[in-house]
């Protein structure tokens, strides 16, 4: 009986203990749940949704990633207002602070006749002094105002190419605003003519960096022509313009059509400009050219509204008088005509020692003035003027004095010296009634410029003769090498001294620096020629590795040229790996030949060489096989899995 009572008492104690434990566990769970909920609500109310709350008995754990250290502290403080801070476990991490964003680097270049201004922000590591040195060579003696600021950040990709292009654009333009950044280039400029505008647009678009947005706006306002001049000459059945000006496109076409009807052949230039003396300019010129045609030849001069007509020697007097009378009646109001019929008798031989003035310019730049001037004041003035135009040490002027020289002689002398300065070499002869100019020039517009200049300086009815020949070799623009010559000269340098690299690497050997220097010098005149720099390897090693190596070497050449301040927007680096051997890869000599750099001329964008197109078409018809481009073949080689046994051990590539 006692044992049964003891068992009942023991079981009661155990049951009470279990009940107590269960009640305690339940109470802890309720406290935990309420604590977690309360903390979560507090954090959410303070917009800290990034924080997460977990409970473990009476311990509250706060996790999550705080945007800042201050946010982490606020979250813990907020949780501490709900539960005892001793019950809070901190597992909050803080997000790494983002680096300070680099500023946008850009330069604005303003260029006019007064100088060049630079405004903007450039990277601290950029070669500022080298950039200014390049600008000074392009400024042609004009001052440079440097307002550039620096920020100590690395230069963004494309920054160097943009700066090189900016220097190139300055050399091409006279008045411009150029905005440069690594990804955008904006050029606003003014050109002298529509033809110059077209040339500039073509050059700048070819030279612009390929990876930058390029915006080009070139305006071509018509020049103000003072005086408005035209000189039409017809002799021996051939006609030409020594000078031609028109105020509208319609007038230009009208004048050229009349000239062609009068015997003009080939291409003629008639400048569009402002300053026409009358809106009926085209009508007056057209009727003057018709008069020359009726006379069978002669010279027609327009200087603003003054018209001069000189008939050929031997012209019938009746025909001359009739033609002149009709022309005087047909010319619009404001225009005045002066006509001359030369004598038909042969001129008597000039007496020995007849007055004349001769100025000569040698190809070496030496000038000699000899002959007569009216007084010592004119002699000193002529000598000083010549030395100012040609240089003090280049002029020899033993002039003689004759006070009885014809009226207007000094003006003919000074006009002749001014005309001589427009030639590369030649001579000027002045006598009582004539001014004769002979020589060669590298400017196609020299005749027109001389005609306009002399028309305002010489006395009326002075007979001017032009015999000025345009020589293309003297033209600084036409003398530039052709694209084919550029490529040939560069490859000749490479053939004489091969561009070599460190074994298995894209580092150019020091021995090849002289070749790179020579190529950089040649590129100065070939900056607008689109060329491909092709890298080639031998067949040792894996094909994919050889392709990557050849590409890296081609790009290394581009970078080396850029380091020498060569504009590289016209260059494309392309690696061909081992796909284009020129020698046998089974011999060391052949492998050496196959490891090479080549320059090739690229066709204009959007075009395809005719021979390649025909060849591809022929092969397709004959074989019925669609050819895969080399670029696709290279891509397939890269995608082909390589086995573990193949090793890239080409130590001689």
Labels describing this entry:
alpha/beta; Histidine-containing Protein, Chain: A; hypothetical protein tt1634; 5 domains; disordered C terminus
Question: Tell me about the biggest sheet?
Answer: 7 strands, mixed
Report the β-strand fraction as a percent range.
Answer: 15-25%
CATH-defined topology of the largest domain? 60s Ribosomal Protein L30, Chain: A
CATH top level label of the largest domain: Alpha Beta
Silhouette? elongated
The CATH architecture of the largest domain would be 2-Layer Sandwich
What does the average pLDDT come to? Answer: 83
Oligomer: single chain
Layout of helices and strands, plus pairs?
Layout: H1 2-45, E1 52-56, E2 59-66, H2 69-80, E3 88-94, E4 106-112, E5 115-123, H3 128-139, E6 144-151, H4 159-172, E7 175-181, E8 184-190, H5 194-207, E9 213-219, E10 229-235, E11 238-243, E12 245-246, H6 249-261, E13 271-272, H7 281-295, E14 298-303, E15 306-310, H8 317-330, E16 336-340, E17 357-361, E18 367-373, H9 376-390, E19 395-396, E20 399-401, H10 409-420, E21 425-430, E22 434-441, H11 446-457, E23 463-470, H12 483-496, H13 513-523, E24 531-536, H14 543-563, E25 571-575, H15 588-594, E26 596-601, H16 610-623, H17 630-639
Parallel strand pairs: 2-3, 5-6, 8-9, 12-13, 15-16, 18-19, 18-20, 22-23, 24-25
Antiparallel strand pairs: 1-2, 4-5, 4-7, 7-8, 10-11, 10-14, 14-15, 17-18, 17-21, 21-22, 24-26
Helix pairs in contact: 3-4, 6-7, 7-8, 9-10, 10-11, 12-13
